[in-house]
Amino acid sequence: WDLVRLTQNYLRLMLSLLVSDPSPDAGILVHCISGWDRTPLFISLLRISLWADKQCHESLFYEELLYLTVAYDWLLFSHHLSDRASRGEDIFFFCFHFLEFIKSPEYSVNSNSSANPHTSSSSSSPENNNHAHQQQQQQQQQQQQQQ
Predict the structure, then answer these.
(1) Which residues carry out catalysis?
(2) Is 102 exposed, middle or buried (0-12, 13-18, 19+ CB in 10 A)?
(3) Burial call 65-80: b when 16+ CB within 10 Å, e when fewer
(4) Residue 53 — very low, low, confident or very high, per pLDDT cuts 50/70/90?
(5) Phi and psi at residue 65, in whole multiples of 5°?
(6) Integer Cα distance of 42 and 45 in angstroms
């Protein structure tokens, strides 16, 4: 079993399901048998991927998104991180390690993912991400003032 390849395949499937129905009410239900490991893994990956594509949580800095996904996707629903870690089951760490395997445009819901400031090489540092986020906030404020 190639865990990276399996996870890539499932993530691509979930992203394709999200974009296959253009209605604003569309969504998917993600749940594994017990809901403890794969469910938070895929919800976290979907959340992070959609954030990178500016499809959700656009106002969050990357640190805030990390806090959200750890607190909400993993801890709020009583994932037993310490129990899993004591058994050598590192699915939580795998979730964030796996991000390096989903950098290509095939993991984007945007048709033009090359314009994504979250994933470009020039914005890989925290300073550049914060600068890009500040620019985005200024643009939103200007648009609101014009309205």
Answers:
(1) 32
(2) buried
(3) beebbbeebbeeeebe
(4) very high
(5) -65, -40
(6) 5
Summarize the confidence of residues 67-82 as an average pLDDT.
Answer: 82
Q: What is the DSSP string of 42-97?
A: HHHHHHHHHHHTTSS-TT--HHHHHHHIIIIIIITTT--HHHHHHTT--HHHHHHH
**What letter would DSSP give residue 109?**
S
pLDDT band at 139 (very low <50, low <70, confident <90, very high): low
Q: Which two tokens stand for residue 80?
A: 């037993």
Q: What angle do CA 116, 117, 121 make, to 5 degrees?
A: 105
The whole-number pLDDT of residue 138 equals: 65
Tell me if residue 19 falls in helix, strand or coil: helix
pTM of the model: 0.69
- The set of residues, in sequence order, having a beta carbon less than 8 Å from that of 61 and lying 6+ positions away, is 129, 130, 133
Pick from 54, 76, 56: which is nearest to 67 by CA? 76
Tokens of 34: 């017990």
**Which token pair is 57?**
């949580």
